[in-house]
Write a structure and sequence with these properties.
Largest sheet: none
Distance between the termini: 108 Å
Number of strands: 0
Structural class: mainly alpha
Number of domains: 2
Oligomer: single chain
Strand content: under 5%
Helix content: 55-70%
Length: about 250
């Protein structure tokens, strides 16, 4: 068999197994196709197997001596796809024999960028608030919504001034969205951020809020709240005990 090094699309690492779950997201339908497909594409790119689902790495282009190895790689990619699809969906894929065909079939069924999904993302972003979550957890949820929106909606990559202004406006919107969803306990630091000129990036604002959260947590540990009533009662009892002891001695 022809030499296959680790740069070759047909190379399989000894640690590769058909039971490997490449991504934590399981495809359940239209609602999470964007996140799932992007995550899986990144994972397959890392394993140099992205060409199998894009239909670039074809069995017919390889000599007979490498076709058995192509079959193995194709089967591995099929298994990795099955492992990240919900049981209801994977049941209809088990008889498939080509990874590119399966990928195309899934995209035809679930990759539907329509106005309803974009509307859902807008509404989710607008309504998302911190509530009982930590700042990091709240920010992570918000960033997931932003990332999916960015993946669904095409933005101009032009380097012109107008495109740059639009990009800056989008980043400013995200800063405001993040600040609006914070609990009112962060109102003071939020006001400080809004007074900064120029406005900081959303990542910088997040860092400032997290520092404030950590400072409060640290202060609450070092400064336990004293109960003035209990303190007064304890002091009164101590005084009475001391007075009784003096009377007894005399």
């Amino acid at each position: 068999m022809d030499d296959i090094d680790f740069h070759h699309p047909l190379f399989l690492h000894p640690s590769d197994t058909s039971g490997t779950v490449l991504v934590s997201h399981r495809l359940t339908g239209v609602e999470n196709d964007t996140v799932w497909s992007r995550s899986l594409r990144i994972a397959l790119l890392a394993k140099n197997k992205l060409e199998f689902i894009d239909g670039v790495c074809l069995r017919s282009v390889y000599p007979e001596s490498l076709r058995a190895q192509w079959d193995r790689c194709n089967t591995f990619v099929l298994s990795w796809i099955f492992n990240t699809v919900s049981p209801d969906l994977s049941a209809g894929l088990v008889f498939a024999s080509d990874a590119a065909a399966v990928w195309k079939d899934l995209k035809d069924h679930f990759s539907k960028v329509d106005s309803s999904r974009i509307f859902f993302l807008h509404r989710s972003i607008a309504h998302l608030t911190q509530v009982d979550a930590s700042v990091s957890s709240y920010f992570t949820q918000l960033k997931l919504l932003w990332d999916e929106y960015t993946a669904l909606v095409s933005f101009s990559d032009c380097a012109c001034e107008v495109a740059q202004q639009n990009s800056n406006h989008l980043l400013q919107q995200r800063l405001f969205q993040f600040l609006m969803g914070l609990n009112e306990t962060y109102a003071a630091v939020r006001s400080q951020i809004l007074l900064m000129q120029p406005l900081p990036s959303v990542n910088r604002a997040y860092s400032m809020i997290v520092q404030e959260e950590a400072q409060r947590s640290f202060s609450s540990v070092l400064s336990p709240v004293s109960d003035p009533v209990a303190f007064s009662s304890t002091a009164s009892s101590s005084s009475k005990s001391l007075l009784a002891l003096v009377i007894f001695v005399n």
